[in-house]
């Protein structure tokens, strides 16, 4: 269920209803409130979905039954799992993590908000700015490493 939340970026109310009927040839086709969405299924989620029984309608059934979670009970399930793992944060933390992961992969603000349930680019702008800074530092250090240049060797060259 955690991979489902992380890889679909769905709000709880949508995740609670998601089922095999929404999977169409490598995509999840779903209607979020007034917006229809068709998103590709990422490879790690494809692998996870192989473990779900073919006859299970909701992907996330409550207590090993065929009944979907309610929004409130799914929230409590996530909260319990986070507490057991010693991690702070609700289900929404997974959605934020997904957006940050896309930002670090180079997604633009508009690419990030194109996934379901995002209404504007405010938070995406913060995520992409932070990710750009991390990528620039990584790129800079990679250039230093590629030239076998350490700060000490550069300082000794400048002193001489």
Automatic annotation (TrEMBL):
It comes from the Bacteria. Keywords: DNA recombination. SUPFAM superfamilies: DNA breaking-rejoining enzymes (SSF56349). InterPro entries: DNA_brk_join_enz, Integrase-like_cat_sf. This is Phage integrase family protein. It comes from Ponticoccus alexandrii.
